[in-house]
What does this fold into?
Amino acid sequence: MKQVLEWSLMGISMERILIALGLFIGFRILIRVGFPRYQRLLERIFARFQLKTFDQVNQAFRNPLKWILNIVNLYVSLRILLGAYYPAWEGIVPGGFDKGFRILGILIVTYALYQASKLLEDRIESATASHIQLEAKRAVNRMIGKVLQVILLMIGVSILLNEFGYELNTLVAGLGIGSLAVALAAQDTISNFVAGIFIIFDGHFDLGDIVRIGSEEGVVEEIKLRTTRIRTFEKEMIIVPNSVIANSAVYNFSRRDKRRVKYQLGVVYGTKAGTLKKIRADMEALIQAHPQVDEESVLVRFTEFGESSLNFLIAFFANSSEYGILMEVRESVNLEILGYLEKEGVEIAFPSQSVYFENPLIISDGKR
It folds into this structure.
């Protein structure tokens, strides 16, 4: 046995070869058997405590981590062999050999981070409000994911170039000056783009919402990263830059759960005070009894002596934000009020003017 251990191959003793081979095989068995069990244990823990994000990260790093363990195994085994083959470097791996493993490690780590960056899209989607336009949300998710992936790749490439001895300071300075020039030239585009991201995530409005932005009012038809398209009630298409929306007050009429009805109703002069009190109370009760009216919001008051009528203020909220239903409720209430006033013999006033003459008016044929 001792004689076998004293054999050598290319200057490397059989003892060292067997140690390196045994270590390599033993570590490989540990990776093949222990690593899957370790992964299953993590999966059970994450499932037990509902740690979905950690489970996703674990899945993204699963294969790269296995590759890294295999590389470490190969690295240590070869180091044992090379320590004998290169006696001048006993305990130290030659520079080129070490650099090769460093480059391989950088590639694997970069790939693992690249895979993990794809999880960001899912996290953004789950954190985004459900009313955000689906296509716009997907566009933002893809954009952020791609930007992060490009950044990771650039970092990985820069580290690799540094390993190969390339000086990056000049390149970075040149890219910085070029980026500044591009940013200044595309300032408006960038501001619209950034504003579009904030609009999508803030969820100020969604497709089909009725909004007023500045002096423009209409229905939102499309939300993009740079612009938002609004169809006015005159069927005109208005394309509004997102930077304008971000700096303006946005009135979203579709987000109301109720809509208000408010108007004045005038009855003729000559209506008695007692009649005014009665019809005020009756009209209020009539409106409150309507099934699509918020009972607590009904307000009917005799407010003023108008130029040609005694005016009531009528106000209430309809239990719907839809414009069509609002019009139905308003029409129904108006018809009920009109029918009630006709039954009570109360006339609704219309604009009129009485003219009084100081002296009797004499008609051309001599009649007064």
Observations:
- Residues 127-132 have pLDDT under 50 and may be disordered.
- The longest strand covers residues 259-267.
- Residues 259-344 form a domain with the Alpha-Beta Plaits fold (CATH 3.30.70.100).
- The longest helix spans residues 14-48.
